[in-house]
TrEMBL record:
Residue stretches spanning the membrane: 12-30, 42-60, 81-106, 118-136
Lineage per the UniProt record: Bacteria, Pseudomonadati, Bacteroidota, Chitinophagia, Chitinophagales
InterPro entries the UniProt entry points to: Bact_2-comp_sensor_kinase, Sig_transdc_His_kin_internal
Start and end residues of each Signal transduction histidine kinase internal region domain: 163-240
Pfam families named in the record: His_kinase
PANTHER family: SENSOR HISTIDINE KINASE YPDA (PTHR34220)
Protein name: Histidine kinase
Keywords: Kinase, Membrane, Transferase, Transmembrane, Transmembrane helix
GO molecular function annotations of the record: kinase activity
Native species: Terrimonas ginsenosidimutans
Amino acid sequence: MLKLPQYSRKDLLMLFWAVLPLSLVINFIIYERGYVTQPRILIFATLITFSVVGASALIYRTIGQAFRQRFPRDADFFKRTMLLIFLFLLTSALIIFGLFSIYGSVGLLPGSGYENKFTWVYLLIGIVVIFFAFLNEGIFSFDRWKNELEETENLKVAYKQSQLMGLKSQVNPHFLFNSLNSLSGLIQEDTARAEKFLDEMSRVYRYMLRNEETQLVTLATELQFIRSYFSLLKARYNEAIELHLDITEEDKGKRLPPLSLQVIIENALFQNKTARDSPLVIQIASSEGEAIMITNNVQRKVMTEIVEYEAGLDNLVKRYQLMNQLPVKIEEEATVRRIWLPLIMNTEEVAV
């Protein structure tokens, strides 16, 4: 559907000052010195021409808007501009013919030789509309640049919010408290397991802190972190959670934002019940070389409070938007949820 251009008072004022001189020049071409020596022609011809040219300018603007919507890509520049000029010139011929017809109907048309005047007026209007076509292209490019700049700024804000949310989740007091509780219990029961748990815990927090400002890591690095992270969860949930990995060697060299998998796993734990006889099963698998698919069975639990895990998943989606990558796809059914996380190639590897 065509979206008509919107005009502010400033736009209409600029249009007035552009149309008035053009109207005067057109009438000077048609009437020459008689335009200023005959008051009747000066008044009526100016009003008629100003109205016709002003309406024409609005028509040209609408046509330009339609072409911007129909051919929006940079690759369409030549096609868009040439078609626009052709249509402008055709419209101009019809408008000038209409203007001369109006002059004839009110008795303002010169007695003879006006055919010659028609040619000169058309030549003048042709130059103006060609200029207008390129001006329209310039306005279109400027508006698009301004919109892209605004969108980039908005995405930067979203990215900063994502960083803050990620930082909050990294030092999440609930996770730290639960980890320390698990460690305390293991120290009393099994010192060897407690030592291993402490080692994995140090790996997890070292990874979180070192990648606070990092944009991308390899999938292999992220999986190494997830194994350590999941071992902490396993110490708490025991047989109530399971993790299965099915990643190709080729995909392990591709990249993704750090802590992405942690955000998704935390979100799954937050939303679903866990029990030994009906464990929460999470699977991370390669998906056609372009993404990894994170799947979990759905065992909805009653939510009694709002936690930041939902916001963490939303911010992960926004982070992919910021990087101009394929979108994160989320598909949820009655018994299973699938999340496709795109993998990123051809970027500088980030050491961990």
